[in-house]
Design brief:
Blueprint lengths: L3 H5 L26 E3 L5 E4 L20 E6 L12 E6 L9 E3 L17 E2 L5 E3 L17 E9 L4 E10 L6 E5 L3 E8 L2 E5 L2 E5 L3 E5 L5 E4 L5 E9 L22 E4 L10 E7 L2 E7 L6 E6 L4 E4 L20 E6 L6 E8 L2 E3 L16 E8 L14 E4 L9 H9 L5 E3 L4 E7 L4 E3 H4 L4 E3 L3 H4 L6 H20 L10
Parallel strand pairs: 10-18
Antiparallel strand pairs: 1-17, 2-20, 3-4, 4-20, 5-19, 6-29, 7-26, 7-30, 8-9, 8-29, 9-16, 11-14, 11-16, 12-13, 12-15, 14-21, 17-21, 18-19, 22-23, 23-28, 24-27, 25-26, 25-28
The chain binds fe (ii) ion.
The site of fe (ii) ion has 4 residues, from loops.
């Protein structure tokens, strides 16, 4: 198990542990870093032992002349369970820079999804995109320059909304850091690993893993595998949390202990650095003569973290019928409506499908959520159009969808044995209660295509003649009953 591809063929992370015949390990073999485990903990880490102050956070003098700097991510008086902050002990505080300058607009990004913005579009039908092109060898595009926005809802200045992006990059960020002042990034690499330097320490994230970097946290991305592509879910006014487990109890889905947060690591590089800020969807930069990754020690619960999707504990029906897809939720970001999430991040990964007497493909459906899907690797059989790794499929709320007639017929007529499904594949979904609008970039992309509606046009009614006869009988009974003074609701064939 040495490469990213090795992990793409496993049914679950548990396979890598060889039934205890080898020493257990919690990260992939090619991950060069160590981490702390847990979700929502108060973590602490120090690169030089004896640096972190205890009993107080803001001493008159910090060891080695370090500066104490607090990041407060919530209202100061947010209830204790929601209150998020971190104390960083660093060579120089983040304010040590030479001022801000405007950057040219990245025309491929968008942040205002309100219909009053002429650069967004609304679609009543299903849309899909073939895999987006990686940059050509002749141009150098890093993670920041390679950001492209697909769709979203709301506006970051309102602290309420969501954006979905892809990134297509071929170059590491060189003496360049990024800070998203608008919201939190959930990054899903699809091709190529990301070696991410953060103020809290390094994270190595490969296809099959995800990373969350929260609002205001600075980071820099190296591309150790060369050209890289992936998906990003950005939320405004909310942070990602684990979904409630309800009747499942204390365990299952993404378990808390499988989330990994970095260990402190600092560098002193006294050269020019550019720090790029995204604020209100616009880009700014400040210049400083020292590395922003100079945090020697830190403590807090407002931290970046990563998660290996092969560790997800799938649950499902063990009798009949499908359970609603909320069982596939890895992380959720609440909205101001307590009954509907702002964003759910779902995965469809290898699992057993054992329900009896049950139609196996996704049932035909219309629902209130916007669904934007991506495919990290493998094949995903639930889509109704060509769907490839690196591509995207989208339905806005209440757009009807389901499989083609031949697939319906096959699934209805056969009684398949209990089987593994989604083997060697992980598909993802960004799902939201918000109505998405589509950006100019995505709307005009040559990769975009609409699902061909004729693929459902041949959905035949197999017992149409019988139903026609029953309809005649129904009408005769209905009319007769109505004439006797009964309400129509009492007349059922
Ligand atoms: Fe759907």
């Amino acid at each position: 198990m040495a490469t990213t591809e090795d992990y793409q063929s496993i049914f679950h992370w548990a396979e890598t542990q060889k039934d205890g015949d080898i020493p257990s390990f919690k990260t992939r073999k090619n991950d060069p870093y160590t981490y702390q485990s847990g979700f929502g903990n108060t973590f602490e880490s120090e690169a030089i032992p004896g640096t972190l102050p205890y009993g107080q956070s803001n001493p008159r003098k910090v060891r080695f002349g370090l500066y104490a700097e607090q990041m407060t991510a919530t209202a100061f008086v947010a209830p204790r369970a929601h209150n998020k902050n971190a104390y960083l002990y660093r060579v120089r505080p983040a304010v040590a820079h030479q001022g801000f300058t405007d950057m040219p607009d990245n025309k491929d990004t968008e942040s205002c999804f309100l219909p009053l913005n002429p650069k967004i579009h609304v679609s009543p039908t299903q849309l899909a995109w073939l895999p987006f092109e990686l940059p050509k060898d002749t141009e150098k595009v890093d993670f920041i320059d390679g950001l492209k926005t697909l769709a979203g809802s709301g506006d970051p200045t309102l602290r309420d909304g969501i954006a979905t992006h892809v990134y297509c990059a071929n170059t590491s960020m060189n003496k360049r850091a990024f800070v998203n002042s608008d919201g939190d990034f959930l990054i899903v690499p699809q091709q190529g690993a990301l070696d991410i330097q953060t103020e809290f320490g390094p994270l190595y994230v490969q296809p099959g893993e995800i990373v969350v970097i929260q609002r205001g946290q600075r980071f820099r991305i190296d591309l150790p595998d060369g050209p890289s592509r992936g998906y990003i879910l950005e939320v405004w006014g909310s942070n990602f949390d684990l979904p409630e487990l309800g009747p499942l109890g204390a365990n299952g889905l993404a378990n808390k202990r499988d989330f990994l947060t970095p260990m402190a690591a600092f560098e002193i590089i006294e050269e020019q650095w550019n720090v790029v800020y995204k604020l209100g969807g616009k880009f700014f930069q400040s210049v400083q003569q020292h590395s922003p990754f100079d945090v020697v020690a830190w403590h807090g619960n407002y931290v970046p973290y990563k998660y290996d999707l092969t560790k997800f504990v799938n649950v499902g029906s063990i009798s009949v019928d499908h359970i609603d897809p909320s069982i596939f939720c890895v992380l959720t970001a609440p909205s101001r409506d307590p009954t509907a999430p702002l964003a759910d991040f779902l995965i469809f990964s290898p699992r057993w499908d054992v329900a009896s007497q049950t139609y196996r493909p996704p049932y035909y459906h219309r629902n209130s959520a916007s669904e934007l899907m991506g495919l990290i690797y493998g094949n995903y059989g639930g889509r109704s159009d060509s769907f490839q790794p690196g591509g995207v499929s989208f339905e806005s709320g209440f757009v009807p969808h389901g499989v083609s007639y031949p697939e319906w017929k096959k699934a209805s007529e056969t009684a398949p044995p209990e089987m593994k499904i989604s083997e060697g594949a992980i598909a993802i979904m960004f799902e939201s209660c918000r109505a998405f609008t589509i950006t100019d970039w995505a709307w005009n992309s040559e990769k975009k295509h609409e699902h061909d509606p004729t693929m459902w046009d041949d959905l035949v009614a197999p017992q149409l003649e019988l139903l026609k006869k029953l309809q005649v009988e129904h009408k005769r009974k209905y009319v007769g009953t109505a004439r006797k003074g009964l309400g129509s609701g009492e007349c059922v064939v």
